[in-house]
Amino acid sequence: MSAGKEPVAVVGIGQTKHVAARKDVSIAGLVREAAQRALADAQLTWADIDAVVIGKAPDFFEGVMMPELYLADALGAVGKPMLRVHTAGSVGGSTALVASNLVASRVHQTVLTLAFEKQSESNAMWGLSLPVPFQQPLLAGAGGFFAPHVRAYMRRTGAPDHIGSLVAYKDRRNALKNPYAHLHEKDITLEKVQSSPMLWDPVRYSETCPSSDGACAMILTDRAGAARSPQPPAWMHGGAMRSEPTMFAGKDFVSPQAGKDCAADVYRQAGIKDPRREIDLAEIYVPFSWYEPMWLENLGFAEEGEGWKLTESGVTEIEGDLPINPSGGVLSTNPIGASGMIRFAEAALQVRGQAGEHQVDGARKAMGHAYGGGSQFFAMWLVGSEPPQS
Amino acid sequence: MPELLKAPLVVEFPFTRSLGPVQSAFLTGLRERTVLGVRTSDGKVLVPPVEYDPVTADELRDMVEVSATGTVTTWAWNPEPRRGQPLDKPFAWVLVKLDGADTALLHALDAEGPDAVHTGMRVRVRWAEERSGAITDIACFEPYDGEAGTEAAPHDGQFEDRVSGIVAQARLDYTYSPGRAQSAYITAVAERKMVGERCPSCAKVYIPPRGACPTCGVATREAVEVGPRGTVTTFCIVNVKAKNLDIELPYVYAHIALDGADLALHGRIAGIPYDQVRMGLRVEPVWTEGGRYPDHYRPTGEPDADYDTYKELV
């Protein structure tokens, strides 16, 4: 056995068609669908899976306490280790990373990782806005929480008002090329985005994410597993998680330090010196459109204050120099717990050359990114078409 | 030291559930006084049924009908029933293996007392008079000394007007306490004073205080009165009505750095047209009679704060 970490490969990816409401399936049926598609992609069976790592948003959302216990049958986890990961909106990313660590550490050879949300049966908005005694109720939901930070970004960088609409217009057009995306707004125009109602000024309706039902699964394996893979694997070149408190004196909500540190760790592992030049595309967690330019800066794709210029100049379009969210992103599909894993999986799909109509030509290195809570949890990975250099 | 505040916190949601094919057949069956199970790959009959085989992970769809009579496999006496439980008098929680089934179903047994219950006793379903396609369609079990039921029989799981979803009322009752530091803060605010706490290590002033510095990880004790005036560091204009929130739209939700505080708290801005609120606006709290916290913040009339003076607090 060689020293150091075992290289980790993604050999199976499965998603459900994300929609507003999957009334035809239980939660078990939903996760099963994604898991079976990932198994089929990898041409593996339940018997080939050594462990299952699952993630979802807080239990309050669907009101099922510890749903992983009830999902063991559906995911073939009986007699195997099954773990649940909790990190709010970033959970889909953290879940994949916990699974990858089990392979990298040679604890297991082949791990099924999966994340889901059934928002139609959930109370996400109220689950996030409990009537806590002695606290003055001022807001409900996430939009009002993040909108002031968007305004702070605009003030700090001088970004013009229309940048947020450009992102939404791009992501919704990208979603039309992704059969699994929730929103397929065939007649979308920039004017429609810009004339949509202002919900939490400066955030418009069309600049926010939908509520979706969906699940995403991946099968991660070691070198031996990758060698048997019928399809080209995606190789993990780096992965990291970072946390910081929701609020503290000196917290930079526009560009949190934990996000910068997380990206720097991933780049160090992957040997990336210049992310803008060396990374071919990124799937980043953008639930409100302005977070595209904000994260471009936080992740080092642009200098501070310059992220919006990449968006404005078309660099982040699917045919641009650094496509961001060719899948349509969170703005087009948001089963909360799964949204981070979809970012990770879409990055892997791209470097496997299997993204279909939203494939980015020549994608060899791609980043998957997720954040959660009050911009306090970060999870990222970088995947490539070639194995990492040892 | 001020009184430690406490109050009830009730978290209550009517969660909906899509049942999927197996639970849909099971619950619709109960409405029709029919108990369905599912047959596994190795021939066992599971009641209540599951969608996927607990041993092989195979999809299970082979429904069977079992009897409404069965045997108690274990039990526990419940002397003080709580809200929402099947019976409003003392009863036994029982696991019942219905005749024809290989697994047991959890439900309630109507019995006179613990002495009237034993493992191995025979029971039968007491159907609810009004049935809707829910587990409560079985009102409870009751003692039964008649004939045993038969083997499980095949059933196509099909019914007219199938139930495809349920509403599960979930409720959690907490006693909430904001703790020492926030109790002191809330008590002071009600007396129209804004009192935070300073970290002994980094000297940052936290308001509301949390009792510990999130950066240094040390307890904070030193009370520091700040404000009441402050600066709007950033804000949004809310056009979305939130239920249970009686604030006229649109309104301004702002982050306000009170003078002397090292991070912003959140409040509503009024006393100025919403579209004239700006970053740097100087504001002060406005209390209403008997209010526990400021109703809103209004402009003080001072010149706006220079961006450089508050940009570290944005």
Key words describing this protein structure:
heterodimer, A: alpha/beta, Peroxisomal Thiolase, Chain A, domain 1, 9-stranded mixed β-sheet, two-stranded antiparallel sheet, B: 314 residues, mainly beta, 5-stranded antiparallel β-sheet, 3 helices, ChsH2_C (chain B)
Structure, described:
The complex is a heterodimer of chains A (390) and B (314). By secondary structure, chain A is α/β, with parallel strands linked by helices. In chain A, 33% of the residues lie in helices and 18% in strands. By secondary structure, chain B is mainly β. Chain B folds into two domains: 7-171, no CATH class; 228-314, no CATH class. Chain B has three helices and 19 strands. The interface between A and B is large, with 62 and 68 residues. Chain A: This is Acetyl-CoA C-acetyltransferase. Chain A: Keywords: Transferase. Chain A: Residues 244-374 form the Thiolase C-terminal domain.
Helix-strand layout with pairing:
The complex is a heterodimer of chains A (390) and B (314).
Chain A: E1 9-15, H1 27-42, E2 51-56, H2 67-70, E3 82-85, H3 91-104, E4 110-118, H4 124-127, H5 143-157, H6 163-175, H7 190-194, E5 198-201, E6 203-204, E7 213-221, H8 223-227, E8 234-243, H9 257-270, H10 275-278, E9 281-283, H11 291-298, H12 307-312, H13 329-332, H14 336-351, E10 365-372, E11 377-384
Parallel strand pairs in A: 2-3, 2-4, 9-10
Antiparallel strand pairs in A: 1-7, 1-8, 4-7, 5-6, 8-11, 10-11
Helix pairs in contact in A: 3-14
Chain B: E1 7-18, H1 20-31, E2 35-39, E3 45-46, E4 63-66, E5 69-78, E6 91-98, E7 104-109, E8 122-127, E9 138-143, E10 153-154, E11 165-176, H2 179-190, E12 195-198, E13 205-206, E14 222-225, E15 230-238, E16 251-258, E17 265-269, E18 282-286, E19 296-299, H3 307-310
Antiparallel strand pairs in B: 1-11, 2-3, 2-4, 4-10, 5-6, 5-8, 6-7, 8-9, 12-13, 12-14, 15-16, 15-18, 16-17, 18-19
